Structure formats: structure tokens, C-alpha cells
Amino acid sequence: MEIDKSLILKLEKLSRLTFNETERKEVMANLSNILTMIKKLDEIDSSQLESPAQLSTNVQPLREDIAKQSITREQALSNAPDQNGTFFKVPKVIEQ
Amino acid sequence: MPALKENTIVYTCHSNIISALNKGTTSCKELVTHYLKQIEEQQHLNAFVEVYTDEALAKASELDKKYASDPTSVGKLFGMVTAVKDVICYKDHEINAASKILSNFKSLYSATAVERLVNEDAIIIGRVNCDEFGMGSTNEHSAHGPTLNGTNPEHVPGGSSGASAVAVQTGCCLTALGTDTGGSVRQPAAFCGVIGFKPSYGRISRHGLIAYASSFEQIGVLATSVEDIALMLEVMAGVDDHDSTVSTEAVEAYSNTLSFEGKAKIAYFEEAFKNDRLDSEIKQESIDLVEKWKIEGHQVEAVDFDLMDYLIPTYYVLTTAEASSNLSRYDGVRFGQRSEAAQNFEEVYSKSRSEGFGKEVKQRIMLGTYVLSAGYYDEYYGKAQKIRGAIKQRFETLFETYDFVVMPTTPTTAFRLGQQVNDPVAMYLSDIYTVPANLAGLPAITLPLAVHSNGLPYGIQLMAKPFDESRLLAFSQKTITEFVTNN
Question: How many Cα atoms within 13 Å fall on the side-chain side of residue B431?
């Protein structure tokens, strides 16, 4: 199955990924090979199939709605690439 | 076991270690020292990303003292030395998921599975390599570089839990934790000549396992004995407040139920054996095992399974969809790497992700995004979900009549390094025998079957109905001791 450039650019945008031209060519080729393999599913008429798989046999267990602290603010910030001790820091979003 | 230097494995199972510890012929400290030396000697295989040398020695001394003061005070896993895959959290230790995007990340908590092992006095000796986020079948897609197969370093160990298999194969630890989303424990175990086990979906908590495809993956165990797998499983399994998909089914004392009574009813799929990618030696040896079972009175029958060709496509649609959603959390804001080239907020996302993720991961995110996107959702994702339902249904019906399904674990022995790296479709198709268990949530195990004329080991796989781990492990124990003892 062919994947054209506009589709790949749309997927890049949705995925928040960017590729250079060489990488993009490779991704396009690989994706079209994979999609050709996946097209095999067209042979099945899924209108005859009932429902999606339910893997969990559990009735969803519910816990008491009690707020508890799991990690401290310090811990939450400890792996951040940029923070000021209170908040995560990011580049300015709104221009003044 | 594959040919290993004589001194590489001192103990083949935990019960041997326990009797040596009881007799006083060894100590935890001596054990850990032995494994550390072994890790050092096998360094060229690149299995360990990090070795917890000081910590493991300190813990060993502490346990030796605890045992000396009161032998009944030690936990079930006293003397168990284990390694953990780089996607399973261990509090205050670094974890990278073999990805650049998580370099320098430190776990804030331990995975429930790890916590339970440690509470029973297991010693975690180190963190082992894998494919990035568990995506790959060769252990070559890793920011830590590839891990090599201990039997022949020109070959891959399989993946994604490749280094977990190598760590056990080369006697660097007694057991290792891996994760299995589509065969990531069983395929490397087969390629390295060890036992690899994936429990039923919902048997072990996924809390603290870095998510790839949440409705497929489970933590699994690699070992050289079925007893050790049973022991590790009974410690890790069971309900957890942090993961609502864990089953409330009772956890059995699997290590006490390893004798298989009566005769088994086993099914095999003719379509699986007709696969032209299946190596002829692996095929013949698998058929020979079936014949041996039959001679002993076990019933083995061919059943029709016409969904064989749809397993891989269904699996890749659904797992990549789940991956694209799960991996959206890596945004360069709250944790992980942020691109230094990012000029604005949008670029913090796109540049951090593009620089941080490897090729295979990006490709799967793109595919997952495609199958979930407007206009394609019903055609791919919705349809694959329904087919998954049909696959699961087929297995349910099958297990009304049969105890187990037998299949080769892999169509071939371990690939050469670099052989699959540029052909994702070929790599995906090699998962054909392992994905059914993940699609249907079944427990499955690979046992070392034989060594190929090319010198590489391979395995045979057994699957059972969900939560029938005790019978699966008991029959595996029987098979390994009575039917494939020539290994």
C-alpha cells in the first residue's frame, strides 16, 4: 500500500515527531510494507463478528474515594528537565 | 542447557541453593560474589546496563546475618539472585527503557512485582538491556547498544527481553524478570536455551512496568528450572491496589503443585506446522516430542485454526495503537530528555520526541497514530479489536476440550546480528507463534527443546487456558524431566 507525503506529514504532526527527508523516505517505505501486511485483514468480514475482546474477567473493582498522597512535590519534580522548585518550566506559550 | 563453560552455572535451581545455604556450604555473600564475577566475565555480551555491586553485597551480608540469628526469619526467596529488565521500576534506581528519552530517569517507586520479590528477600543484582520500550525481537533496538547471544556472539539473543535471557543463559544470576507483549520473554528464552514464562493477562500487576501495549503485556520470568518460575510467580502474582486489571483469581502455591497427574489432552494447529518459514529441524524435533507424549498415553490431536494468517496483522494494529497512546506521555516537560534545540513549546514536544525515541519506536508510534486516526479507525483498529475477540473466543472453545496447545516457540533459531534490523515485516512475522498467547491473554511457556545443527538452541511452547498456570507448569516440569532430558 502506498503512503503519500501529505499523509506522512499529517501523521508526524499528530505524533509530534519530525523526520528529515532520508528518514522520512525510510519510514514511508516501511509503513507501506507493514500496511500491505495488515491489509490481510480485509479478507475477514468483520460485520459477522460480535464484539471486541474483553481480557479482564474482573468486575471493575472500586476503591473508597479517599485522597492520598502518593509522591511529594519534590519527587514529582525530581525527573523534570526544567523546574523551579514549585512548577515545571516550559518555554513561553503566549506572546505578550 | 546449551554448552557453557563448566564453571558458569554452579546452581541450576533455588532449592539447590537453599540446601547449600542450610548445610552452610555457601552463603548469600559467596553467591553474590560468584555472580558478580560471572557478570564481569560476560561483560562483552552487553547484557547488564547497571550492576548493583555494593548494594547486592550489602544485602547479602545482611541476609546472612538474619539467617544466622534465626533461620526461620528469612523470606521465601532467600538465596535467589535475580536481574531486572530495564523497563521495570526499582525505587531510587535509574531506569531508561533502553531509550535516550529516559536517560537519567530515576524510579520514584518499585514495580509491585519487584517489591514483592524484595520483600521475600530476593537480591536484585542489576538492570539488564532490552529493545527500546520492549519494541523489537532482537535486542538491537537499544540505546545501550545490542546484547549478544552467549551461545554465539555473532547472533542476537532475541528480544525484547534479550539480555534477561543472556543473563540467565550465562549464569550471571539464577532468574531474571522480563516482559512479554508478543513473545518478548519466550522468544529470547528459546534463542538462548533457557525457560521463559509469560503468565495469564492479569496474573501479575503491571504497576511499575513502563507501558508499551497495556492490554497485551505481562511481566514474565526467565530461569533454568520450572520450579524457580513457579516460585517467582507465586510471590509476584495477585491483586494489587495499583492495577485494577489484576485478576482476583486465587494465587496458588505453584511451587507445591508441580507434579502432573493423569494424561494430558493437547492440541496443535496443523497450519502452524505447515508454515514455510518453519525450520525443518525445529519442525521435526517438535513432531518427535508429540510422538513421545503419545507413546506415554497423552492425547495429542490436530485441530483446525484458520485465523493463523491474521494473528500478526491484528497484533500489530492493536499494539501500535496502544503504543502511540502510551508513549504520548514523553513530552520533554515532566520527565525525560528535553531537546536543547527547542525554540518554542511545540518544539519541546516534537524535537524532544524525535531526538529521544529510536527508529523502531517512532515507526510504531506513526503506525499506531495512523490506525487510530479519523477515517481509518473503524477500518483498522475497530476491526482488529473484533478479530481479537474472535481469536480469544476460539481459544476458549478449544480449552473446553484440551488442556494445552503446543507450538514451536519460534520458526527459526536466533538471527545473525543485523539480519532483521532493516526489515520490520520479516521481524514481525517471526513472532507468529508467540503472539496468540498475548492476543488471547493465555499463560504460555517455552522449554528448551534441542540444539540445532547450526549450534543454536531452540524451544517448544505450551499454552493453557487463562489462570491454569499450575497445570501448565506441572506438565512443563514433566515434559522437561521425562521427555527432553537429553538437553
Answer: 29
